[in-house]
Design goal:
Layout: E1 6-12, E2 17-20, E3 26-39, E4 45-57, H1 58-67, E5 73-86, E6 92-105, E7 118-121, E8 126-128, H2 133-138
Parallel strand pairs: 4-6
Antiparallel strand pairs: 1-3, 1-5, 2-3, 3-4, 5-6, 6-7, 7-8
């Protein structure tokens, strides 16, 4: 059995870089940082930060470009992929990236307000997520199936939304 699965919850180190391929496919590249904390043998609290490159495709890339900014928290689930490329200096290099297959937007940057977010899958669906990414990650297995979650599509509704129309 082979498994290639990555789950990270971290903050963006820069605004997403959005581009379009020659065939019209949208691609977003995110720089993310995750922290690890521990106490060493002498009782001192230690911290190590890891930096990751995340690549999102299609509608997921568009959502990232629209809602994510530097400092925003994100939960990304995907797979590791290593690829080779030739640098501007002509030297061949390799890089390992996380290819995102689903994403949840966490709280905005520390200067921003609110802690709500949205979940998105590669197919392009978006739905309200838990108030914190940690809670969202822990409760992901207990979430109802996507089709069981009531949603409101504001693009389809052109008239005013009444409070009695809201399903929750």
């Amino acid at each position: 059995m082979n498994v290639n699965k990555v789950i990270i919850v971290g903050r963006l180190t820069r605004d997403p870089e959005i581009r379009t391929t020659g065939s019209g496919q949208t691609v977003a590249t995110l720089g993310m940082a995750t922290n690890n904390y521990w106490t060493d043998k002498s009782g001192q609290r230690q911290e190590k930060t890891e930096f990751h490159t995340v690549v999102l495709w299609g509608r997921l890339a568009e959502i990232a470009g629209q809602y994510l900014t530097k400092g925003a928290e994100a939960f990304v689930e995907g797979r590791l992929q290593t690829r080779a490329y030739t640098g501007k200096d002509g030297v061949e290099r390799k890089t390992t990236e996380i290819v995102g297959e689903s994403m949840q937007l966490g709280s905005r940057s520390q200067q921003g307000q609110g802690s709500g977010g949205y979940a998105a899958r590669q197919e392009g669906s978006a739905r309200p997520a838990a108030a914190s990414s940690a809670a969202a990650g822990a409760g992901a297995a207990q979430m109802p199936k996507e089709e069981d979650i009531p949603t409101i599509n504001l693009d389809d509704e052109r008239e005013d939304i009444k409070i009695e129309d809201v399903p929750f």
